[in-house]
Write a structure and sequence with these properties.
Elements (H helix, E strand, L loop, with lengths): L5 E5 L6 H11 L3 E3 L3 E2 L14 E2 L2 H8 L6 E7 L2 E6 H9 L3 E5 L2 H10 L3 E6 L3 H11 L4 H15 L7 E4 L3 H18 L14
Parallel strand pairs: 1-7, 1-8, 2-7, 3-4, 8-9
Antiparallel strand pairs: 3-6, 5-6
Helix pairs in contact: 1-7, 5-6
Length: 202
């Protein structure tokens, strides 16, 4: 895959990844978010093509079987299928955009088999702080909190496989860290901080 960067972000649930990414994408031009395909039903307020590409199981299977041009990575989660379209990623990269994938550690491993992504793991300061944040939401049951913390332990054990680690102890510092990583990787491609070709990076 040529063109723009392919950026993979992973984090345990409750680490603030979505908030960090939204702020960086708002302030840094040239970034696009890859919209995944899924077989699950839309939730209230979700828009097809914006939040996900909502497809029937047969359509998902047809794309998955169309390798190597089907899905860059895919997984089954709670009975529903999720996948990142090769076609969508290549279309954005071909236009010179840097593409952001919000996927888990298993998805990152799949992507690495097919491409050369820049991988970034966002971690909480501690599991105790993560538990505090999850409880602070006021929307999680005890069983859900226990499940998320157990998953977080497994995901944190994989953090060393990533190119970069950001500890979200303070939101402003985490946002600046992600922004700096993207700018640095653009400079490695001899592109400017805004992602444009030929810009001087200093």
């Amino acid at each position: 895959m040529a063109g723009g960067l392919l950026l993979v972000l992973s984090a345990p649930s409750g680490c603030g990844k979505t908030t960090i990414l939204k702020q960086v994408m708002r302030d840094l031009p040239g970034l696009v978010f890859s919209v995944s395909h899924t077989t699950r039903q839309p939730r209230p307020g979700e828009i097809n093509g914006e939040h996900y590409h909502f497809v029937e199981t047969a359509v998902f299977a047809a794309i998955r079987n169309r390798q190597p041009t089907g899905f860059l990575e895919w997984a089954e989660v709670h009975g529903n299928m999720y996948g990142t379209s090769v076609e969508e990623v290549e279309r954005h990269q071909g236009a010179g955009h840097d593409v952001v994938l919000d996927i888990d550690v298993q998805g990152m491993a799949q992507v690495r088999q097919r491409a050369e992504p820049v991988t970034i793991f966002i971690a909480p300061p501690s599991l105790a702080e993560l538990e505090r944040r999850l409880r602070g939401r006021g929307t999680e049951s005890e069983s859900t909190i226990a499940l998320r913390l157990n998953n977080a332990r497994k995901e944190l054990a994989c953090a060393g496989a990533y190119d970069y680690l950001i500890v979200n102890d303070r939101l402003d510092r985490a946002v600046e860290a992600l922004r700096s990583i993207i700018i640095a990787e653009r400079c490695r491609q001899r592109r400017g901080p805004d992602g444009q070709q030929g810009g001087w990076c200093g």
